[in-house]
Design brief:
nine-stranded mixed β-sheet, Phosphoenolpyruvate Carboxykinase, domain 2, 14 helices, Phosphoenolpyruvate Carboxykinase, domain 3, 3 domains, alpha/beta, Phosphoenolpyruvate Carboxykinase, domain 1, 30 strands
Length: 546
């Protein structure tokens, strides 16, 4: 089959760049989602599509990219050129059989100098609407982009499973059946092509494209970051890096600051720029008192054709009301909405160089300080490790958290060698004298099941003190175990909160728990980076290492 000609034929009969209102109308008419009481759209996916599929995500291994991909990462699964060609051809053939096709032409990157065109071809109006929410309109001046005019083309078939027999020996076997899983999320960096086949989780589309950006930008001297960004009244920029559940979206959506974006940014010689046009926020336990901006973005009332927020896999009652505390469908309910739905967001998505870099962790051990200052090598170490905690279960019967280390707070989306990202971070921190902070949004007074989650209002107060310069006027003490600088005071925060050992009833229990976490750091560092070129001064910051 002449693949390029087949693609041209598809584009010739597709609905290309339909208006937002037309897309919403198509979603409702085709029953791809239902209209909730607020006017937002509610949709649900099959059980295998309630989250990303890292084990079914592949990178095409071509000579042009082979030496730049970190194939030691558990998330970098190679796919042969032949298998991708077969996958691409099958996706085109499946799309050719569909009665209705949608094409959106958008971009990633608010700075036109580094913007990448994205052309999405799909049979689902909801997927097209998601790209309209999440990817940017083509910025003025994109003709001068370093990536030129050729788009990255993405084929998306959310509900079409692969022919398992056809891909035997080519894709990973499903442990339950011994046959290929029927799902493939694959990207070809060199040829600017991608396929999402069989995954209905909308995040698969978003994360595939951001993985592409995170590969393409570092050789150009641009540091891609899995994080949010905001701007203060005086133009001070803050970056918030963190894994899902650490408070990245909540802390950056601050009514006292302007939001640039909540998930993906680049740091260039021009400053910070947002990759996205929208937000993709977690909905579980969302409450209007604690997260008013996110709640308002999703739950404001508007006619359906003027709304277009997509709520994915959240419980909804027959009267159209959502219940974000109900976990029966999934812990990972999400909402996609344009940044313009946030009252104080800046859709231009560009700002100067950051004054502060905030590395967020949700430590369920209850032993890390809620706020700590990081020197440059400390910042590079914590950036490299990307530590947080994930809970083994949901609500009952679980007291032991599981430590998670995800390099750069986004290991599945950072496919290059670690030093490519660490070196750029150190360069930018030094050049712009950016302050770095470790912020623990997890537990205090004991581990999960015994202690309490640190009140987000206190976390916001500490973050504001750091951004506003108040913490520059207080004394710090070095934590000898975790090797970070802990403030002895912070306006508006009880002093004992700042030092986690003072919040535990049993000092011995704290020491044992803290020692155990430090040893986990040492083991993980040795396992993940022992054979890589990590600076000795950065390695020396690892807890538990002698």
């Amino acid at each position: 089959m002449d693949i390029d000609r087949a693609l041209e034929r598809l584009l010739g009969r597709a609905l290309v760049n339909p208006s937002r209102r037309d897309l919403i109308a198509e979603v409702v008419a085709r029953r791809e989602a239902v209209v909730s009481a607020s006017g937002a759209l509610a949709t649900w996916t099959p059980p295998e599509s309630t989250g990303r599929r890292p084990e079914d995500t592949y990178i095409v291994d071509r000579p042009e990219v082979h030496g730049d991909v970190d194939w030691t990462s558990p998330y970098c699964h190679p796919m042969t050129e032949e298998t991708f060609a077969l996958l691409w051809e099958d996706a085109l053939a499946a799309l050719a059989k569909k009665g209705r096709l949608y094409v959106t032409e958008r971009a990633l990157g608010a700075d036109p100098a580094w913007a990448l065109r994205v052309r999405t071809v799909t049979d689902r109006a909801l997927t097209a609407l998601f790209t309209d929410n999440m990817f940017r309109p083509l910025p003025e001046g994109i003709e001068g982009s370093v990536f030129g005019s050729e788009p990255f083309t993405l084929l998306v078939l959310p509900y079409d499973a692969l022919d398992r027999g056809k891909y035997a020996g080519r894709l990973r076997p499903d442990p339950k059946t011994g046959t290929p899983s029927g799902i493939a999320v694959a990207m070809d960096f060199a040829r600017r092509r991608g396929v999402v086949h069989g995954s209905a989780y909308l995040g698969s589309v978003k994360k595939l494209m951001f993985t592409v950006m995170n590969f393409l930008l570092p050789p150009l001297g641009i540091l891609p970051l899995h994080g949010a960004a905001s701007v203060g009244p005086e133009g001070d920029v803050a970056l918030y890096l963190g894994l899902s559940g650490t408070g990245k979206t909540s802390l950056s959506s601050d009514p006292e600051r302007t939001l640039l974006g909540d998930d993906e940014h680049g740091w260039s010689p021009h400053g910070i720029f947002n990759f996205e046009w929208g937000c993709y926020a977690k909905m579980i336990d969302l409450h209007p008192d604690k997260e008013p901006d996110i709640y308002g973005a999703v739950m404001h009332e508007a006619p359906p054709l003027d709304h277009g927020a997509i709520v994915e896999n959240a419980m909804i009652y027959p009267d159209g009301r959502f219940d974000f505390s109900d976990r029966r469908l999934t812990e990972n309910s999400r909402a996609s909405y344009p940044l313009s739905f946030i009252r104080n967001a800046d859709p231009r998505g560009r700002a100067g160089h950051p004054r502060a870099l905030l590395l967020l962790t949700a430590d369920a051990n209850g032993v890390l300080p809620p706020m700590a200052r990081l020197e440059p090598d400390q910042a590079k170490f914590w950036f490299l490790m990307g530590y947080t905690s994930k809970l083994a279960g949901t609500e009952t019967g679980v007291v032991e958290p599981r430590s998670t280390f995800s390099r750069f707070f986004g290991a599945p989306f950072m496919p290059r060698r670690p030093q490519d990202y660490v070196d750029l971070l150190g360069e930018y921190l030094g050049r712009h004298r950016t302050e770095a902070w470790l912020v623990n949004t997890g537990w205090s007074g004991g581990p999960y099941g015994e202690g309490r989650r640190i009140d987000i209002r206190l976390t916001r107060r500490m973050v504001r003190a750091a951004l506003g310069g108040e913490l520059s006027r207080v004394d710090f003490v070095l934590d000898p175990r975790f090797r970070v600088w802990v403030p002895l005071s912070c306006p508006g925060v009880p002093p004992e909160v700042l030092q986690p050992q003072r919040t535990w009833r049993d000092p011995g229990a704290y020491e044992r728990r803290a020692d155990a976490l430090a040893e986990e750091f040492a083991r993980e560092f040795g396992r993940a980076f022992g054979g890589l070129e990590i600076s000795p001064s950065v390695a020396a910051q690892c807890p538990g290492r002698r």
